Amino acid sequence: MEKLVYESPSIQKMNAGLMNKFGTRTDYEPVKQIDGVSVHSMMAQYGSPLFVLSERTMRNNYQNAVRAFTTRYPKVHFAWSYKTNYLNAVCRIFHQEGSWAEVVSGFEYRKALGNGVPGNKIIFNGPEKTNEELEMASNNGSLIHIDHFDELYQLIEMSDKLKQKPRVAIRVNMDTGVYPMWDRFGFNFENGQAWSALNKIVASGKMDLTGLHCHIGTFMLSANAYATAAKKLGDLAWKCKTQLNTAIQYIDLGGGFPSTNTLRGSFLPGTDAVPSVDEFAEAITKELLLLGFPPAELPLLVLESGRVLVDDAGYLLSTVLANKRLSDGRRATILDAGVNVLFTSFWYDHKITPAQDFTQHTEDMALYGPLCMNIDVVRQSVNLPLLNRGDRVVIHKVGAYNMTQWMQFIQMRPNVILIDEQGQTHLIREAEKLEYVEQLEKVPHHLQQINI
Ligand SMILES: *Cc1c(COP(=O)(O)O)cnc(C)c1O
Fold first, then answer.
1. Distance (Å, whole) CA 367 – CA 155
2. Closest ligand 1 atom to the C-alpha of 304?
3. Are residues 228 and 348 in the same domain?
């Protein structure tokens, strides 16, 4: 047996308040494996820091979400939100499960085509679409979601050049009782802008109006907000049918369902604070079924969930670089993974667990990343067992947005691996190297030589 580590006694200041009702400390067990694969062995093979994705969790999440909706409503389709995590291996897992693609740029659009998604199963959202991209999307029969009047006019202007009428929807923003309201995308419902856009589309005769779309926010904590959104889009669909003689084929309620992460400063942990997918499904489908459409004419329900399907499938494994005392006596622990790869630490209190046995000593500590930059804070204050240089930690629920919003700032991006359902690991994105980062740089001739 290994000799236990000696930890010197220390005097701790007791802090009143700031606890939630479960106390400050919620985890007493180390996390030594993920899907049955040892954390230490993965780090030995693939290095540190290391992103790990669980294929099993992604498929389970997807199947549960689909079940929650299809048991309540007859026509449902999910479209994978590329910007949430567009590593091809991840996208293909969702496409294998039957998910369409939801993209918000030409770059993501081409990525979806590259993953083999048929054009007519790609939803093209976002405020920027070039003529070339609109032409490509239109000729592929993709679902183009118009964001503003200038885009609507852009499409009308180019329509004569297109091989077929573009299939379009409009994005609608609205008051769902959740503030601040996201009104910068799409056409407003309450002031009549959305209705005016629909009239223009139908009157132009240049486009096929196929759907109505909204994406009311992200990490939404109210299922009721979706019921309001479903009702408002449903009312528009009804007006399209009765006043514009146009049947709306689908209502797309976007994404935004929360994962079980804990928002910074939240009193309750995420697992207790967020509604389940079933609660969202119940609120949405109940409203859609009450709209008054006969069963055969019920619009297809499209969902563009991202975060809720992938966040808890992602882990970031990291190594302790050092410990130090801050000037106020607080303990600070420095990890080799910082905000450069963990963008979501700006708004989540990520759950962090040691990956090896620990002693009973705990202390409030700040967890910092490796960047030489003051903002590089992984946790402002967290109560953890004492960690020593070389110890490993697991940062939980990092699958959404980190592998797209990560940056090459001071450090390069690390390896990303996938654990398949048989417990095999696969490298799905290699750690970056200096040559890769500098590949696109050009040094002007007069700067080729330096003289120091
Ligand atoms: C980002 C985004 C999504 C996915 O949002 P999540 O919060 O990850 O579920 C879906 N639709 C649109 C239009 C988006 O911009």
1. 50
2. 10
3. no
